[in-house]
Write a structure and sequence with these properties.
elongated, Arc Repressor Mutant, subunit A, mainly alpha, disordered N terminus, 9 helices
Length: 229
Amino acid sequence: MTLSLDPPHTNYERLRDIIRGDIMTGVLAPGSRLKIAELSERYGISAVPVREALQQLQGEGLIELTANRGASVRRIDETFLWQVYEIRKALETFFVVELAYRVTPADIEKLYGILAEQEAALAKFEDGKFQDLDRRFHNHIVSVTQNEEAISVLNRHYDLIRPLRIRFGRSADQRARIPREHREIIDAIQRRDSGRASLLLSAHIDQAFKDLAGEMQRNEEPAATRSRG
């Protein structure tokens, strides 16, 4: 595959995103070795951006470096997933309290607008759009504080989780529950009930982790059964 570069991404940023997606969707299998020459040929790009992309993915925890094996793909297991969601929960529950204190009518209008679009996407079975709107909803909670570092961390985590959501999907019940929970969170913010907003958002994120971990486990069980057979 030849890499297509679109501004404002640099070569290594674009490549990093593609390799990250290939890791999270299993195209690059857990434990597989990542050799710069092979990746350069695979993605049709020079060695320098490949090396830079691998360094950043190591920082994200997706790649492991060992003395004997070099770079290899880390296994994306429940522990890794839990760590990602715990960081997200700590950040978002902190900022939703801030939002409840300083919320404006424009914020409420924005959140309800996102919710309406998400409900429409749910009705039309537009899963990709549904996921993008989920990201917009959560990002708005943080963005009102103008904390760019927190937004950057959350965006990186969404970039990690999105390929897993595409790969493992959600049940119909899970998809239907998300807008309902978003509405409850907005209602608490609108009432300036920071404590309830924080509790609702914490439970919402915990459930998101359980849903995805459960889907991953259910998909792994048939493979394990086949390997034993």
